[in-house]
Amino acid sequence: MKNKIKGSLKQIFQGLPASKGVIIGKVKKYDFGSFTYSKKEAENKREELLKFERAKKKVIRELESVIEHFRGGYRKIIESEILIINDPVIEEEVRRLIEEGSTAEYSFIESMRKYIKKMEESDSTVFRERAREINHLVRKIIEILQGRPSLVDIKEGTVVVSADIAPIDVFSISQLNNVGIVIEHGGPTSHSVIIARNLKVPMVCAVRGLMDKVNDGDEIIIDGWAGKVIINPSEETKREFERKPLLYTEAIKKIIKGPKKGKGKERKRVTIMGNIAGIEEVEEVVKNGAMGVGLFRTELLMWDPAIWKDEETLAGVFEKGSKAVFPDPLIVRLIDIAGEPAIPGFRESNPFLGMRGIRFLLFEKEILKMMYRAILRASNLGNIRILLPMVTTLKEVEEAKRILEKAKRELTREDIPYDNYIPIGIMIETPAAALMTKEFTSSVDFFSIGTNDLTQYTLAVDRSHPILAPLYSEFHPSVLNLIHHVVKSAHPYRRKVAVCGEMAADPLGALILMGLGVDELSVHTDAIKLLYGIFRWVEYKKVKEFARKTLEMPDAKTVKEKTIEFIRKNIPPLAVFYE
C-alpha cells in the first residue's frame, strides 16, 4: 500500500538544488512512465498511420519552439532529437509494422528500441542522459497517440511532481508564471535541469519516493536554492518561505562582497574553474571570473557529426576555447563513454565495470589518436591540458602516452605545429586510482578527482538506484579519506589536485575540499562567484583543522551536520540556506 501523506501533516524532504527560486503552490502529479502497450492488431491501418504522423508532427513543433531558446551544444541535442523522430529508417520500420497489422504505439516503440538500449547500457552520464531524453520523446509521442493529458494543461501556481521529466516538458511548464518542478531522479547536470535554469523555472531533483507520498492538490513549497520540498506547510511556514527569495538574494550579495574585516593573512589559494559541455559555455565561465576551464566534457560533441567526424573542425572547437580562456588553462577530458567493441558475440554484462573511459579508448585507438591530433593542433597557445578518463592502472597511462607520442610524430611529419610539452593528467574516479596516486606522479602532470564516480565505486552504490540511493554521499568519511590521500600523495611531487564533481560546487563540500588541501575546484558557472565569496570569509587554518576532523567522523550525516555548524560560526550569511 502506498504511503500517502494524510490530512494536513507537514512533511519535509531534502533533494538536490537544481534551479533557483521558491514556489508555493499545489501538486500536479505527472506519471509519464505509466503507459502500457501491447502487440494487438490494428483495426484500421490507414488510421494508425495518420495517428503516428499527427503525433510526430506535434512533438516536432514543440521541439522546434524549444530550439530558439538555446544555442551551441544544447541546440544540437534538440536538433538531433528532431532528426531521430524524422529518421527515414525508423519511419520505414513503423510503417512496415503497421502494414503488418500492429498499432501505431507498438510499431513506434519497437522501432525505437535499438536507439535506446545501447545508450541505457552506457556508464557515461551523458549517454544515459541521452537515453532518458529519447525515452521521453517516445513517451511524449505515445501520450499523444493514446490521448493522455498533457502538461500544457497545468495552471499557474502548480508544482509538477514526477519521477522524471523531459526538456520539452520543462519548456511547456515555463510558459506559465509561478510554476515549479520536483523530480525523483536526475541531477544538477541533466539537460532538463540546465534548461530549467535557463528558463528560470525553480526545480529540485533527486527527491526519492515523493510520487508515492503526495496527491494532486496537496499544498507544496519547493526551494530550488536549498533543495528542500515541504508538503502541507503551515501558514507560518508559507509566510517564512515567501520571504526566502529576498533573504537568499541578500545573503549571496553579502557572501560575494566578503566580510567587513579581513579574516587573517593565512589563506590557501584555491583556484575556481568552470565545467563546460560545449564551446558556447566558455563565455559564461569567463564572465563569472573563473580561472579557466577545469573540465571540458567532450561527449556532447559526438551529437554533432559535423564536428565529431572531422578532425579539423574538432581542433577548431578546442582552439576557440583555448583563445577564450587564455592565459588560463583549457582542460579537455577525452571522451568518456562505455561501448561494445566490434567483436562478434561480445556483450557487456555490466557496463559500470566494463569497457569504459580509457579502456574503451585504448581499444578504439583510432578514436583516441584522432582526439589527440585535434587537441594538439589547437595547442599552440600552450594553455591546453589533456585529461584521461577512468584510469585505474599505470599501464593504461603509459599506453595512452605512447599513442600521444605517435600523434605528435604524425603532426611533425605533416609540418603542423603543436605544444610538444602539453600537460597530461588523469581522472581519479576509483579507489584503485586514488590509492595509487604516488605511483602515478612520475607519469602524469596533474590529477582531477571525479567525486561522483569515486563515491559510487567506493560505496558500491548506484546513485540512481530507487532504494539504495540514500546510501550515496560524497560526504562519507571513506570518500573524504581517499581525497585526502590523493592530496598527500601528489603534493610532495609538485602535482596539483583538482575536484570536478558535484561536491566541488556544494558550499559544504567546497569548504571541506579546501581544508583537505585541494588546489582547484571546477564547477558549473552558477557556483563560481559564490565560491570565491565563501573562501574570502574563512581562514585556511580553521578550515584545515575542521576538515581533518571530518576524516574521523562516523558517517556522512555527521559530516554534513558539523559542516553546517562550522558555517553558522564562520560564514553567518551562508547559514540561511541550511535553516
Description:
This protein is α/β, with parallel strands linked by helices and 579 residues long. 46% of the residues lie in helices and 13% in strands. The protein has 22 helices and 16 strands. The strands form 2 sheets. The protein has an 8-stranded mixed sheet with strand order 1-8-7-3-4-5-6-2. The chain has an 8-stranded parallel barrel with strand order 9-10-11-12-13-14-15-16. Strand 5 (180-183), helix 7 (191-198) and strand 6 (203-205) form a beta-alpha-beta unit. Helix 1 (45-67) packs antiparallel against helix 2 and helix 6 runs parallel beside helix 7 (191-198). The protein is globular and about 75 Å long. It starts with 10 loop residues before the first strand and ends in a 9-residue tail after the last helix. Residues 1-7 and 339-346 have low confidence and may be disordered.
Can you give me a brief rundown of this structure?
This protein is an alpha/beta fold. It has 22 helices and 16 strands. The strands form two sheets. The chain has an eight-stranded mixed β-sheet.
